[in-house]
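Researcher: Let's do a round of design. I'm pasting the structure tokens now; please hold your answer until I've finished.
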């Protein structure tokens, strides 16, 4: 058994070296043309119907929010109003988690964005913290 394993170990480099050399691989396939091209998209009515149905629904993505309040409903609504008056460009979401209401703000794609928002809000809301949550995709910076 030992001699078989030794022979296999010695033969492995020979098998690897026997691979065929195919030469340089092309960088683009098929070759690119120099002139402008035309793209024609043909949509059937079924595809249009599916696209419309897809756009009517929300599609939450994984992201982060900053939770700034957890407590009773009246205080949560008052906190939301005050927050939106000071920060009209940051969305605020009020949700119920028995027996309390929680107020989470922002639709942040990365933890770094959430850390920046938390740093800005810590003075006004000292008990705030970052939570992973399903977010609505905010517009990209160039598309506002």
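Researcher: That's everything. Go ahead.
Model: Designed sequence:
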């Amino acid at each position: 058994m030992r001699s078989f394993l030794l022979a296999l170990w010695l033969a492995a480099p020979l098998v690897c070296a026997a691979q065929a050399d195919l030469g340089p691989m092309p960088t683009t396939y098929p070759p690119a043309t120099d002139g402008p091209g035309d793209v024609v998209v043909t949509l059937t009515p079924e595809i249009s119907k599916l696209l419309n149905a897809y756009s009517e629904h929300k599609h939450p993505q994984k992201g982060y929010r900053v939770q700034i309040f957890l407590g009773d409903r009246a205080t949560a609504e008052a906190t939301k109003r005050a927050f939106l008056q000071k920060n009209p460009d940051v969305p605020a979401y009020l949700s119920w988690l028995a027996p309390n209401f929680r107020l989470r703000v922002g639709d942040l794609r990365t933890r770094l964005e959430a850390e920046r928002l938390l740093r800005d809000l810590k003075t006004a809301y000292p008990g705030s913290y970052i939570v992973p949550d399903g977010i609505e995709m905010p517009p990209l910076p160039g598309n506002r």
